[in-house]
Batch of 2 targets.
Target 1
Amino acid sequence: EAAGWTVRRFKRSGDDTSERERLIEEARGVDVIFNGWNPPNYERWGERIPRYTRDIIATAEATGAMIVVPANVYVYGDQPGPWTSATPHTPCSVKGQIRSEMEEDYRDATLRGVQVLLLRAGDFIADDPSGTWFDLIIGKELAAGKLAYPGPRDRTHAWTYLPDFARAAVELCNRREMLPRFLDMNGPSFALT
């Protein structure tokens, strides 16, 4: 919105049978669908992500809108970086496998005329609490002088500053007519210990 875009938010109803039709109807006339759908807990990813992906692709096919997916680095598994769009997907976790299959579904949709941008990011960090695991785990007790880190502190981790990611997504959407039908692009990120 701050960049001049009109934003429509879609709230899932939980009714799987009517949700796709409602999504298509509410997306009529939009230029871009930003896929921010994620199940509220990881244990339902295997069930929900494929359905969400199918619904969003069907909506883009019905409306002609470009899909923007905030992709992650799970698909790279434990390969050392730096990663590029040419890095093979070798997920080593269930979440990585689900995301890799999702991305393949989006790639396949481009063969049917859908435009897709996968803008890849590390884990999000932001100035304000935004519900990321950085906020919920690492930074939860920083004011008390405590740092909780889920893993070895000397291991490099991919982080993305959320405002930078949003600016990159907006700029790419502003140039969508110049983008290829499918673009897998690493967003602005940091590799930090």
Target 2
Amino acid sequence: MNYKIALIKGDGIGPEVVGEAVKVMDAIGAKFGHTFEYVDVLMGGRAIDAVGKSYPDGTAEQCRACDAVLLGAVGGPKWGHATDPDKRPETALLSIRKDLALYANLRPAALRPALAESCPLKNDQGIDLMIVRELTGGVYFGKRDRYQTEDRGEEASDLMAYSEKEIERIGRRGFELARLRNKKLTSVDKANVLETSRLWRQVMHRLAEEYPDVQYEDVLVDNAAMQLVRDPGQFDVVVTENMFG
């Protein structure tokens, strides 16, 4: 099989890490009979330096023409103080996530026995969990605004919004992953304060009825942070919205 891979080498250590990853992929290809064609795609700080914007026109189209995208870290102090969104590497990251519908960020965390003594977390039950972070909605993608007030100076706002469709999409991914692991799903929200979290919990409860074989629980985000430190072994799959993830 021949696969076309878009390489976004990134900034800082990004090109170094991606370069080593390419060596690993080529070794895998040689062993299992695959070949990889690499397409260099410009994005992030390197793109700002080269063409004046972090997300050049046609970036998403180049990636869609490939079978997969290998992305290195983007950004760095050199571009960290720009006020123009086009000259901020983070703008490119958010844009490509949205354009390619990369809504599910899967973040596994496992503690290997050889490193157990070096881990500051309690690990009596071991640590092997998967965090499923929604990646294309919420406050990261909401409307931003700055305005002047009469008595409080300048004020800024970021809109956090979620639709039922967005929540169901990521929630279903969480339940399906839980079925493949230890059949336990923890949904993290802030339903005691946020209306978006109340909708999140409502949709998740509806989905839970479709997956009776999966043990389901709701945990508020501040408690979830404490429990991850206190006893990470209690978690299997954790699903959460963008900011909390």
